[in-house]
Input
Amino acid sequence: MELSDLLKEPKLDGVPLLVFANKQDLVNALPPDEIAVGMSLYSIRNRRWQIQACSAKTNAGIDDGMKWYSKSVILYFFLIIYIM
Output
């Protein structure tokens, strides 16, 4: 299943999206903003999303991405509970 199909899935409506732009420790790594353009992330309007530069090799950026996602999921569930 492609990302565009997952984003259309009703059960996932509004669920935050985190994309890790891995291998940023390499000189020829594509910058996160270019990856976001290639994945059409800027067109996503029905959920919070973040593209996080990272390197699995050095562990750089992983914690920042997970902290963002944790906060975003808590906010998502708070809004669901508050609205219902």
Summary: The domain at 3-83 is CATH 3.40.50.300 (Rossmann fold). The mean pLDDT is 95. The longest strand covers residues 17-21. Helices lie at 3-8, 32-38, 62-83.
